[in-house]
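Good morning C.,

I know you're traveling, so I'll keep this short. The sequence:
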Amino acid sequence: MPTEQYHEPPDELAEDVRTFARMCTSLIEEAEAINWYAQRLAIERDSAAAAIMRDAQNEEFKHFSMDLEYLLRRNPRWRTVAERILFQSGDILEHGEAGEEAVDAGNEDESDPEVAPAATPPPGAPGAPAPSPPGGLGIGGLKGRER
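The tokens, ready to paste straight into the viewer:
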């Protein structure tokens, strides 16, 4: 089912903004799929069918998480808020307020949201540059990097 991605004329939007919109739509679609599987699993009585659905739902968890990470890497303000809320113990609302305060403190101009370029993956992650040997120039870390 197609989803309306744009609230402005697409031909007037920069390519990175259109990509961001597509990834937001993908995130929504993955969340919907997770919900659909949860509903199916809630009523499924056949254990083999339920196991297959659970496996499929796990794939949706992965896709949702990858979409979210992509979006967070490209929007530092969103990432700032998310880092203060996600995977924190305690009161979610309090963490949300702290995230909002952190963004407000660092962004005087809320009308100019920033979309950052792709971030370099952390060391050891797929696609991350190879670590430089002690005393080396680290030239091997340039392999596979975009120019």
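Safe travels,
E.
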